[in-house]
Amino acid sequence: xxxxxxxxxxxxxxxxxxxxxxxxxxxxxxxxxxxxxxxxxxxxxxxxxxxxxxxxxxxxxxxxxxxxxxxxxxxxxxxxxxxxxxxxxxxxxxxxxxxxxxxxxxxxxxxxxxxxxxxxxxxxxxxxxxxxxxxxxxxxxxxxxxxxxxxxxxxxxxxxxxxxxxxxxxxxxx
Length: 174
Description:
Elements: H1 2-36, H2 39-60, H3 63-71, H4 77-114, H5 120-133, H6 137-145, H7 149-173
Helix pairs in contact: 1-7, 2-4, 2-5, 3-4, 4-5
């Protein structure tokens, strides 16, 4: 029993460490954002982050937690692969339609949210990023199922660090 507690504690630390590191980096970058961006631009960035947070569950449809639950209902690798494939096809179709609807309406939406169309490109990039990243829960869930916590943490950190770098380049570089 003690071995299970120790194993669980180690995995908990590894799974959480990548996210905590990126949150720390984002916190450290706050003074840079406030120095480089005007209050209006910083407000626009905050609105973009809120929109991103709202789109995240929409693009996942609860399938991230459902996949973990349903994975164990199937014992054969073929059935598990069919489950994953069905989820991917569903998400391609439904998220593709959601993305098309958002892209078609984004000029109106950005005008309402931001008061101008100055952030159209940022909104398009955000929607595209949400579409692509909506699929990432499958490989990350498989890593968790296989208890490959170090790979999970490393890939989570790389993904999150890439997001931070892209945000710096796009926000400060623009």
